Every structure is written in structure tokens, then in C-alpha cells.
Amino acid sequence: QVQLVESGGGLVQAGGSLRLSCAASGRTFSSYAMGWFRQAPGKEREFVARISRSGSITFYADSVKGRFTITRDNAKNLVYLQMNSLKPEDTAVYYCAADLSLSGGARRRGNDYEYWGQGTQVTVSS
User: Fold this and answer.
1) Bridge-based pairing state of the strands 120-125 and 10-13
2) How far apart, in whole angstroms, are the C-alpha atoms of residue 116 and residue 36?
3) With contact defined as beta carbons under 8 Å apart, do 72 and 34 qualify?
4) How far apart are CA 100 and CA 34, in angstroms?
5) What is the pLDDT of residues 31-67, one digit of tens each?
6) Which residues on neighbouring strands pair with residue 35, listed in sequence order?
7) Measured in Å, how far apart are the chain's first and last C-alpha atoms?
8) Hey, is 31 helix, strand or coil?
9) Measured distance CA(4)–CA(22) in Å, rounded
10) d(Cα 113, Cα 34) in Å, to the nearest integer?
């Protein structure tokens, strides 16, 4: 079992920044990859970013590449999503997720992840 708790969401103006955090517990954090997804009202959940177990490999959705950065601190059992140059279209509930499969690659599908947090709301005003 893995428990995930997101924090750091909020309301920000377009062009601003936010940093989301996801605290993990229950299994050795460095043994699984992590991802961030988001879901806007009326839209399907979409992949945002992924980071490997060691933190050395990352993948991003084209829509956030160059603006968002995913990192992790395996000593603190935390994964972060630094979001810069935010746009109104980034408004969504953001979820962190754990992939325990040991598979490599981008793995952008939600079904590739076994555990999910409860989500944190990010609202970007224009």
C-alpha cells in the first residue's frame, strides 16, 4: 500500500508560479516512479509529468514542457511539481500517482499507476 497526499494548490494569476508537493508513505519511496496528472472540469484526466525512481529521468506533456518541472526528494519521500508561467488553461485538480511496476518509459496513461492522491485544486485567473 502507498498513501499519497498532495498540497500546494491555490489561486494564482496568469504568469505566476506554484509548487505542488506530494508526500508518500507506506512503501520505500525510491522503489517506484511517480507521476502528476490533472483534470479540468468537463475534461478527461491528462498526463502532466513523470519522474523515474532515482529522479534522473523525466517526461512531460507537450502542453507544460518548458514551464513545469518535476523533481523528487527520496530522503523526504516527496515529489514536487514546480509550475511557472501559469496559464488559465492550467486550471485543474492536480493528482500525484505512484507506478510500482518497475517499467521504464513515459507511461502516460492513468492505468499505469496503482495509487493516487486525493488531488489539489489549482486555479489560474486571467
Assistant:
1) parallel
2) 10
3) yes
4) 9
5) 999 999 999 999 999 999 999 999 999 999 999 999 9
6) 50, 97
7) 40
8) helix
9) 6
10) 8
